[in-house]
Amino acid sequence: MKKFLVWMFASAITAITFAAQPVKIVIIHTNDLHSRLQGYSPESVFSPLSINDDQTVGGFSRIAAIIKNEKDTNEGITIISDGGDFLMGTLFQSLEVSTGFQLSLMRRMGYDVVCLGNHEFDFGPGKLAEILTSSKARGEIPAVLCSNAVFSSKDNGDDKLEKLLNEDILRRSFIVERNGIKIGFFSIFGKVADHDAPYAPPVTFAKQISTAKKMVKELKNSGCDIIICISHSGIEKNKKGEWSGEDVKLARAVPGINVILSGHTHTKLEKPLIVNGVTIVQTGEYGKYVGRLEMTYADNKTVTDNYRLIPVDDRVKGDEAIQQAIDEQRNRITTEILQPLGYDYEKPVTETDFPLECDVNGDFISSNLGPMIADAIHFYVNKHSPSGTDIAMVAAGVVRDNIVPGIQKAPDIFRIMSLGSGSDNIPGYPLARLYVTGKELKNILEILQVAYKSSPDNFCYYSGFRVKYDPGKGLFRKIKKIEIIDREGNPSVVDFSKKNSTLYSITANSYMLEFIGIIKKMSFGLVNVVPKNAEGKKITDMKTTVIDMNEVTEGLQEGKEWLALMEYLASMADTDGDSIPEIDRKYSSSVKTFFEGN
């Protein structure tokens, strides 16, 4: 008995000594990947299995190689995470409901835990549940977190997703226990992310700070030594140049969090932001960089030792097995999505020797890409729909990528207008059309000239009209003259007096046109626009505004922004005789706005 007690005492001393040893912890993290499985731009030069021979960035096979290297060389604990919006942004998203490819691939790459972002809800909670179910059916997937999701007891539209929470496929928290240390993870879906998730309902999201306090308490009670919040909320600089945002507020308000792995704002942090003793990091966007946070845990304390961003570029040779899986999925995209539309993943659509850009964080007013997209929509609708359209519009916020000089293929064009879905199997928001009076058109344009000042995403590009306006005048008094330009280039003046009942058609994606219905709210009740159909009757269901692009064929044939852009670019002249159309040089510099001042 005495020998047994001595042995027990010695074992306890050994355990205490072991636990007291400093442990290195490395967190490898990404955020806002947006299904950028391939490197870009353009994809025509992407060569993931060789190095130093292209200028592309990103690509999951390169990220996989970085993860493998970190796991092979790091001492201590290595954990791989992603901060949400891992889906939605490329043609790969189009098969996620049926194949569940990406999450299973991310697990093969080494990801341990991810959180949901607003774009995971772009297909609605039911389809998200199908994506998660399809992913799990392929095998192991990372832990998927959404700690502050609230499911409706009255609406069954989120029942499938709630069921996955009960089955532990979707989780509130995740605990990693290694080397005698417990590391607890929870996630926060931010307020702005909630606003940016119009298709999430009936799922709603509980208050962020109160949820975080609750989760910290739960994880502490579970014995966690380190607590990490994966937050799809974000950080940004305020007008004073100081770091602010939801994750800064979170760090200040919630004690007990050691690290916030931030996402949603696409912010590139070269070094960690320390707020109230909490380390906040974020990698930017689209897999251009992988974040590497190195910490030491000792004496019940966590210390941040080092942080750096690892460039994901042509200096990194991709993982062959991961790239092979991506190539197989790419072939499936061609067969199931592109070929029925007359396209191929690898076939050139157009080429350019100048960039086309639309940067909501830069000089978006002088964009050459935004006006070209509006022209493409105007061209496409007037070509395929007998009713045509007077005006085409596109908002800066839905333009998701630029065009880099080189040969552009279908995936490069799709990335530009990659958001949304319709009622068919073709990805992208459908194009929709509504009708307004001349006075309503004037009021819409007056509001849109102000709306972007609160958010650059609201800035609009147009095709099909010209406007004379006086920027020095007050609200609702700036616009002096509107001219509709017909298909032959002839102008006609819009009478925006109350007596004019002539209707004018506006085309944009279906999501953007819903904005027209809230003009009254934005103008504090001063302006009320009543969306109408071609007969002048009030539209009560915005789904009826979707344009049928082939009225001869049975059923509704939806048009998409990216298909409009593909067709418009393919219609341009081949000026160098290589059988690839060149982008018209009229777009080589900033395109003059349709709003002309005095």
Fold topology:
Layout: H1 2-20, E1 23-30, H2 60-73, E2 77-82, H3 96-99, H4 101-109, E3 113-115, H5 125-137, E4 143-145, E5 149-150, H6 159-166, E6 170-171, E7 173-178, E8 181-189, H7 191-195, E9 204-205, H8 208-221, E10 226-232, E11 236-237, E12 243-244, H9 246-253, E13 259-262, E14 273-275, E15 278-281, E16 289-298, E17 301-311, H10 320-338, E18 348-352, H11 369-384, E19 391-395, E20 406-409, H12 410-416, E21 431-437, H13 438-451, E22 460-463, E23 465-469, E24 479-485, E25 491-493, E26 503-509, H14 510-513, H15 519-522, H16 561-570, E27 595-596
Helix pairs in contact: 4-5, 5-6, 11-16, 12-16
Could you give a quick summary of the protein structure above?
This protein has 598 residues and is α/β, with parallel strands linked by helices.
Structure characterization notes:
The protein has 598 residues and is of the alpha/beta class. The chain has two domains: 303 residues, Purple Acid Phosphatase, chain A, domain 2, CATH 3.60.21.10; 244 residues, 5'-Nucleotidase, C-terminal domain (5'-nucleotidase,  domain 2), CATH 3.90.780.10. It is built from 16 helices and 27 strands. The strands form seven sheets. Strands 6-4-3-2-1-16-17 form a seven-stranded mixed sheet. Strands 7-8-10-13-15-14 form a six-stranded mixed sheet. A hairpin with a 5-residue loop joins β11 and β12. α4 packs across α5, α5 crosses α6 and α12 crosses α16. The longest helix has 19 residues. The radius of gyration is 26 Å and the shape is globular. About 3% of the residues have low confidence.
